Amino acid sequence: MYGFKPTTDRIPFGGQVSGAMEGLPGLKPSAGLLATSLDDVELFMSTVIDGDPWRYDVTAVATPWQRVDLGPSPLTIGVLSEDPHYPLHPSIRRCLQNAVKALAGKGHHIVPLHVAPEQSVSYSNRVAFQYLTYGPHVDHVAASGEPLVSSVAKFASPMFTGPFPVNPDLDVFSTIEQLHRAKHRLCELWRQTWLQDKLDVILAPAAQCTAVPHDTFGWPPYTMLWNVLDVRFTCPQV
Amino acid sequence: MTETFFPQALERARFLDECLQGEGRVVGPLHGLPVSIKDSFCVKGVQSTIGFVSFLEHPPSSSNSALVDMLLGLGAVLYVKTNVPQTMMVSAVHGLQPYVY
Q: Global pTM?
């Protein structure tokens, strides 16, 4: 199975049901897909994007699907290091090591990424958490009296790794401004990493672990980083 | 699966078969392809409860989400809406913050 999270504002996201207040500054969602082959991922992406999604949803940009020929030159591949607060299970570590070995064997240039604390998985997840929780909250679950499912009831959160990026006692507008600055700094640091290391692509784990027993999965730190960044870097090779 | 609409899907598949076999045309590049979608997407006449029992009080969707209209325009067959996690996987220490991401 292949899961694909597109850049935001490409696959039309509009017209869905959500339990949250709309329009608040926060993380941008992205509609992605699961498919059984990379060919199918490309079929879906190219077909939907070349189908003029802007006609259906004002948030979808009117940029055509880019067909890219990378050519024979090797790529510069940045490898995200394990965050000490979110250690990788041996199977994931092994998978990453095998991928790096295979890519290096093909002549690609591997660059282990050294990230500053303010661009780390831990910090970016705390930025995400504060964005996800600073706004007004409506308890749709309590409204019916139904119980929380046990994984939700555990209230898994990234806040064990450090403090809130922004003082949680600030007024709403100051919170919005300070979170904006924190997120902007985070994105700027990653922009500098991308350019300084001349990266074409970043290789990283999607999760600490493989599948867990039903109803035990908690917080997704390694994918949350990319949701927070929401950047539009491109492969300089192209 | 949260919502199923198999009779409509079969009718749609028959219509698409008729287009192809009867008239020799395809509706689009995804002609006849079954595509499952998450429950947060809206299909006219179908509920979007997104894991909340309290949302059963809401009427079924009155219109399709943008992507649903696109998929239908491209020839896909929609037949089911699949589960989303309760509260969309986000809950705060102080309570619940449903958020779509």
A: 0.91
